[in-house]
Amino acid sequence: MNLLALIGGVVLAFLAHVGRLTIFAGTALSHCVRPPFFPRLILRQMVDIGFYSLPVVGLTAIFSGMVLALQSYTGFSRFSAESAIADVVVVSLTRELGPVLAGLMVAGRIGASMAAEIGTMRVTEQIDALTTLSTNPFKYLIVPRLIAGLLMLPLLVLTADIIGVAGGFVVSVYKLGFNPTTYINNTYDFMKAFDVVSGLIKAAAFGFVIALMGCYNGYHSKGGAQGVGAATTNAVVSASIIILVVNYVLTEFFFGT
Amino acid sequence: MNNTPTSAAPKIRLKDMTKSFGPKSVLTGVSLDISPGESVVVIGGSGTGKSVMLKCILGIMEPDAGVVEVDGEKVIGLSPVKRDAVNAKFGMLFQGGALFDSLPVWENVAFGLMARNRRMSRDEARTHAVESLAKVGLTPDVADLAPSELSGGMQKRVGLARAIASKPDIIFFDEPTTGLDPIMADVINDLIITCVRDLKITALSITHDMHSARKIGDRIAMLHEGKLIWIGPAADVDKTDNPFVQQFVHGRAEGPIKMQVRR
Questions:
Q1: With contact defined as beta carbons under 8 Å apart, do A48 and A214 qualify?
Q2: Is the peptide bond before A36 cis (omega within 30 degrees of 0)?
Q3: pLDDT at A1
Q4: Measuring CA to CA, which of A182, B10, B165, B260 is 20 to 30 A from A117?
C-alpha cells in the first residue's frame, strides 16, 4: 500500500475519533445542565469513585510521601540542605504527585470499571432497553459518572495530599531524626494555598477525563466480551495518557513563565 | 403480495425503508402496514436485517431513507421529547432479556413506569411491578431477586412483564423463544398471546422459530435480502408456493436461499 495513503488513513481515523469524542463530551455536558437528573445514581457513583478509591489512593500517597522524603534526604544531605525536605515533600505532593498519582490510580480502578460496565450494557442491549423505556442513556449512565468524577477526584486528592505529607513526616521524624515541630512548621511555611488549589483544579480535570474516557469507550464498545475487554484497556490507556498531557498543559498554565 | 391489512388506518406503517452499514445494504426498501390489535411476525434468516428493522422503528437506529409512521405520525427525526412520547406507546422484549443487572427484578419491571411518571412513589411502582410479574406467572418473591439469579426462561418472563408493565399500545418481540427449551418456549408463546389478546396490543415479532411464528402471528412476513418478499395470513405460510418461504419454513439447505458462509 502507498505509504502516504497509509499515513493519511491513520490521520483521518484519528481525527474522526477525536471528532466523535468531542461530540460525545459536548452531548454529555449539555445533559449535565438539563433535567431530569438522577440524584441517587450520582450519589452511588460518588461513593464508588470517592469512598472505594480511598484505600488505593491513600496507600499510593503515603508511600510516595515516604519515598520522596527518603530520596530528598539522600540528595540534599550532600549540600547540607536537609531542611528543604519538608518543602520538597509538600510542594511536590500538592502540585504534582498527589493529583497525578491519584488520577492514574483512579483511572485504573474506576475508568476500567466504567468502561466494562457500560460496555457490557451495550453488548447485552441494556442501553437499547433504556431508550425504549423513555430514558436517555446519557442522562442515566454518563452524566452521573461525569459529575461524580468531577467532584470526587479533588476530595480524593486533598486526602492524598494530607496522607502523603504525613508519610513524609513519618520518615523524616522517625527514620531521619528530624524534629517533629520543626518539620511541621517548615511544611506550613513552605506550603502555599495556590499549590493546593492548583492541584485540586488538576484533580477535577483528571476526574472528568477518567469518567469521560471510561464512558466513551464503554458506550462505543461492540463485539461481545472481546470488545468489552478492548474498551476497558482503551479507557485506562487513553485516560492515563490524557491525564499526563493535561497535567503538562495545566502546569504550564499555572506555573509557566 | 398482501401488504395492506383489511382494516382502517395502520398502527405502524413502514414505507420503502432502507438502511446500510458502509457498503453493506441491510434493508433495501421495506414496506409494511400493521393494523391496530394485529400481531405480525417477521421471519427470515440470520443477518437479513430483522433486528435492524425493529431498531429503526424503535428509534434506536435511524433509517437512511423511507417512512416510519406510528398512529399516522412520522417518527423519523423527531426531537428527543417527541420521540420519548412515541416510545411511551411501545413495549419491547429483547432477545436476551436486556434486564439491568444492577437493579432487582421489580425495579427492572417498574423502570419504564418510574421513567415516564417521575412522581410515582417507589412503593406504588413496586405494587405495579408485582402485578405485572403475576401476569406472566411469577410470584412476588421473585421481585427482590437480581436478574442473574433467574433462569433464561424466567428472565424472558421478567422481560415480558417489563414490556407490558406500562400498558403499551404496541409491543415488539425480538426472538422471544430463542434459547429456550420447547416447553418454556411454548409457555412464552402462550403468555405473548394472552398479553396481546387481553391488553388488545398491536404486536410485531421477529423470529426464526416457525412454531412460534404460526402460533403468535395473525400475519407472517418474510424478510430476504433487505425486502419483505412474502406477506400473508399465518395459516397460509405452509400453503404458499413461494420457493423462498417454502425453503425457510421447511428448513431445507437446498433452495433459492444461499447461506452466506462469509460476511
A1: no
A2: yes
A3: 65
A4: B165
**Contact between A235 and A217 (Cβ < 8 Å):** yes
| Mutate which: A133, A138, A141, vs B, most B CBs within 10 A | A133
Q: Strand pairing of B219-224 and B39-43?
A: parallel
Distance separating alpha carbons of residues B171 and B126, to the nearest angstrom: 22
Measured between beta carbons, the chain A residues lying within 8 angstroms of B58 are: 128, 131-132
Q: Give the β-pairing of B73-74 and B65-70.
A: antiparallel
CA atoms within 13 A on the CB side of A77: 10
Residue type, B74: K
Interface contact flag, A125 B95, Cβ < 8 Å: yes
Do B38 and B220 contact (CB within 8 A), yes or no? no
Relative to beta strand B39-43, strand B202-207 is parallel
pLDDT for the residue numbered B261: 54
DSSP at B259: P
d(CA A211, CA A45): 10
Instruction: Give yes or no: residues B85 and B178 share one domain.
Output: yes
Distance between CA atoms of residues B175 and B50, nearest Å = 10
The predicted pLDDT at position B1 comes to 45
Instruction: Report the alpha-carbon distance of residue A193 to residue A162 in Å, rounded.
Output: 14
For residues A142 and A28, the answer to whether their CB atoms sit within 8 Å is yes
Domain residues for the domain of B117 are: 101-167
Looking at the DSSP assignment, which residues form a beta bridge with residue B121?
none
* Judgement on whether residues B63 and B131 belong to the same structural domain of the protein: no
Which residue numbers in chain B have pLDDT < 50?
1-2, 6
Residues in chain B: 263
Q: What is the rounded distance in angstroms from the CA atom of residue A159 to the CA atom of residue B99?
A: 38
Distances B141 to B133, B146, B148, B248 between C-alpha atoms, Å: 10, 11, 15, 42
Cβ–Cβ under 8 Å, residues B29 and B227: yes
Name every chain A residue with its beta carbon within 8 A of the beta carbon of B116: 134
Question: Which residue's C-alpha cell is 418510574?
Answer: B114
How close is the nearest chain A Cα to the Cα of B204, in Å?
15
CB contact under 8 A, B60 and A36: no
Q: Are residue B61 and residue B178 in the same domain, yes or no?
A: yes
Q: Is A96 contained in some domain?
A: yes
Residue B260 domain-assigned? yes
Beta carbons of A76 and A89 less than 8 angstroms apart: no
**Residue-level pLDDT, tens digit, chain A, 257 residues:** 689 999 999 999 999 999 999 999 999 999 999 888 899 999 999 999 999 999 999 999 999 999 999 999 988 888 878 788 899 999 999 999 999 999 999 999 999 999 999 999 999 999 999 998 988 999 999 999 999 999 999 999 999 999 999 999 999 999 999 999 999 999 998 889 999 999 999 999 999 999 999 999 999 998 888 999 999 999 999 999 999 999 999 999 998 87
